[in-house]
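Running co-folding for adenosine-5'-diphosphate.
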Amino acid sequence: ADFSLYDAVECNITGPKSEGVPVVSSFDQLFADFADSIPPELRESIRRCGFVRPTPVQKFAIPVGLAGRDIMCCAQTGSGKTAAFLVPMLASMIKWGRGTGALTVPYEGPCKPDTLILCPTRELCLQIFEDALRFCSQTNFRVVRVYGQESVKNQIFEIAKGADVCVATPGRLWDFVSSGIVSLTELNCLVFDEADRMLEMGDMDKCVRPLVENFGMPCKENRQTMMFSATFPDAIQKLAGDFLYEHLFVAVGAIGS
Ligand code: ADP
Ligand code: MG
């Protein structure tokens, strides 16, 4: 990537109380300006990823996420959206001492992840899982993946060892939640990746909405919800609004439709 192009990318942040939302130009500035919010473990894992400069979506969305705000963010494919939600999500978990790490005692009852990343496909689930592992490398957080087209046995085995960060496709997660393997009642942060596909997939009314509304997940005022997508058509924005609280709309570069 030609990193010198980054400074030319425009961004528009709109929504309630959007005045004065900070923007950063480098990870050093991010670490300096958000000294209290980005713990050393996370700085180190960002460094180990080899990330030198934040991409535009990271420059604009990470500060919004660190401020605890809900986000609807639109930025093109390949622009670094994964780190844009992983950094604020993990920063908050570390800062507030959430997440239990690997369980030493055999577990009983449903596991209660602190954060949930919903995504539309198995491939994407595996990709986000790998990225989340890298960003958690300096923490004791347990990251688990939940997706279809694979036997449930191994996934349940991994969940039983602890699940702080759950990366999931909606269908399989619905199976686990409705059978009491996973509980969403302790969730502090909810992410929709490729939100346009999440919200328009046939699963929306069958799985996605029930997962958010019918199984005791904290209401939108009591969790942080972040949605990332390459496109946000009006109809999808309207649907997404059901799950967001006073969110900021972060549009990076040209908005697809
Ligand atoms: P998107 O979800 O927007 O399609 P990804 O989050 O998958 O994009 O990132 C695309 C690629 O860019 C990945 O290989 C990722 O590791 C890399 N990347 C992300 N942020 C940076 C950065 N700040 N510096 C260098 N590479 C980055
Ligand atoms: Mg992505």
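Result summary
The CA atoms of residues 31 and 38 lie 6 Å apart.
The pocket of adenosine-5'-diphosphate (ligand 1) is lined by residues 51, 53-55, 58, 77-83 (CB under 6 Å).
Job closed.
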